[in-house]
Amino acid sequence: MMTVYQENMYAPNIYRHNYQDTSIRMTGFFKLMGKWKGSVIKLIYHNFIIFVFLYYLLSFLYRFVFIYTPYQKEMFELICIYAGRFMSYIPLAFLIGFYVQQVVSRWWNTFTVLPYPDRIALKLVSFCPGKDHFTKNLRRTVMRYVNLSSILVYRLISKKVKNRFPNMDSLVLAKLLLPHEAARLERVDFRTPHEATWTPILWALKLLCRARAMGKVTLEAPIYANLVSSFEYIEDCNRKILNYGWVEFPLAYTQVANFSVYAYFLAALFGRQFLEPGGAYQDNESFPHVPSVSFANNPPYDKHTPDFYVPFFTLVEFISYMGWIKVAETLLNPFGDDDEDFDINYLIDRNLQVSYLIVDQADNDLEMANDPFLEAGISIPEELPYQSADDTDHHRANSVKSVISKKHSVSLVSVNKIKENMIGSNEPMPTPGTTRKFDSPSFTRQNSQISNPELGTLRHNNISQNFSPASIRHSPFVVRKLDDLMEVDNEQDTVKSVRDLFKNNQSKDTTDDTEIKN
Description:
Elements: H1 4-9, H2 28-33, H3 40-64, H4 70-86, H5 92-112, H6 118-127, H7 133-157, H8 159-164, H9 168-173, H10 179-191, H11 199-213, H12 221-246, H13 251-271, H14 312-331, H15 344-360, H16 372-375, E1 378-380, H17 389-397, H18 400-404, E2 410-414, H19 415-422, H20 452-460, E3 481-482, E4 485-488, H21 491-517
Antiparallel strand pairs: 1-2, 2-4, 3-4
């Protein structure tokens, strides 16, 4: 049996994108169309079966029943020609396109206003720190009220949440409300016919105001105003959600769009039927080697031939338009039970657990550790490593940085180390990835020139007073000063360049002395 920790570790990742494999060549399309949850096939398969059944039923009656009675045959053909000729008058693409665009936009805007209490929880940890019972209980109570306010909103607009928390007793049982708080909330509901979802927010603000007045928490006026603004965010989100539930998408537009789609495909049941062209309408010259397929090149039968038994393009059109209207139908109420609807019950549990976890983290003392890049002597990190070597080439090939130019990481080099190598030390310089200690504990940025003690040492070793590593044209590094540390692109090249400079200066001094003696 798995523990709670193991269940949390192996919980499904809801943030993983559903279109991970769509870019795979050859098989990406089949993987995309093979998904069932939320797919267009799941939405329209029952309508598709009914349409195909009715289409072939009419085709069967025409081919094997009406064909033997001239009146019935001609009347059926007349209905089919009439439907096929005038069904294009329905502006289906325009109606559905604009309708679906508005519905999807409304659906996404509704999702973006779902409230998250993380902001308030983080501010409470920062503005109301403390391990004592009062401060800890204050933070938890405020977060309970904030989550309760959102749950009261969800109960009004979501049937799933209403079934989960049907009354005040269910909220008390879930420990979201205390018995006396439930009685107080019921009294508010009794005094007004309007919603009372704002009441827990009011309680939370009054608790903070009382704690501030009593001196239990120290909140300066700007800090307190900043904290109150986070409660305004929750209330604004709750009000927007209620507004979306109050003023729904116009019913008349929904009816027009749905009626147009169903009327169009009702006409398509007749207007896309095969009709047998008889006598002079039969074209035997265009395709003489395929006599088994009836074909007419002249109206009114030209739109109803040839006969391939399966109306392929009509079925594609049905999937496109009916799938389009079904998408809008499922998104009209994002708080329902469809696949694309919001999982509000999950959001309730997530917000409650995360908010309590955040305010409880204030009890943990955090110690600042040394920066691992500074410990490794790296000022500006290079590209971070990848997990597997096989994926490295693939990711680097898609990296804009590696395609445009390759920039080396910048390492910190001690000037003392450079001095030791300049005066003849054979100790190799450490690589950028090697952990080492620095000669100076100070890392305060100063001027771009070397500090005075180091300048004196370099002057003693016959280095010019105006020496600066940045002035060396053949050196591959650019220097910035961090006390006695220099930032360089490559340590080995830096030391080699300084050594070469030192040797050149010694050779030049020897030559000058010889010329003076001569």
